[in-house]
Design a protein that fits this description.
Strand order of the largest sheet: 3-4-5
Distance between the termini: 59 Å
Structural class: alpha+beta
Strand content: 15-25%
Helix content: 25-40%
Oligomer: single chain
Number of strands: 5
Radius of gyration: 23 Å
Number of helices: 4
Length: about 110
């Protein structure tokens, strides 16, 4: 019996049971060992995705994740240049035809 209580009902003692491990090794590649069964390749990758989807807390988040995964099946990955990290508004200014002033470098410490 736990020393904590939730309202008037005491909580149950937690005991962790190891079920297995899953890992993604890239697109459509993975390794897994679940209940002693070893998997690799696309089956393990799918198991990894399924596990993470099952841990999403709300239906809205699950739907968002599945829609992102589905979209990734039909479209190429987005590539973002690292230079956009320093001046993220520059690309938008160029798109609307505005003049873009270069981003100021971060201040240096003396």
């Amino acid at each position: 019996m736990s020393w904590r209580t939730c309202g008037t009902k005491p909580t149950e003692q937690y005991k962790h049971a190891y079920v297995g491990s899953v890992a993604s090794l890239g697109l459509y590649k993975g390794v897994a060992e679940v209940y002693g069964i070893k998997l690799r390749g696309i089956a393990a990758w799918f198991m990894h995705r399924t596990y993470h989807l099952s841990r999403m807390p709300t239906f809205n988040r699950k739907f968002g994740v599945v829609s992102d995964w589905t979209q990734a099946l039909f479209f190429r990955r987005e590539v973002v240049a690292l230079e956009q990290i320093h001046d993220p508004k520059a690309e938008f200014s160029r798109a609307i035809g505005g003049a873009v002033a270069p981003a100021e470098p971060p201040p240096t410490k003396p």
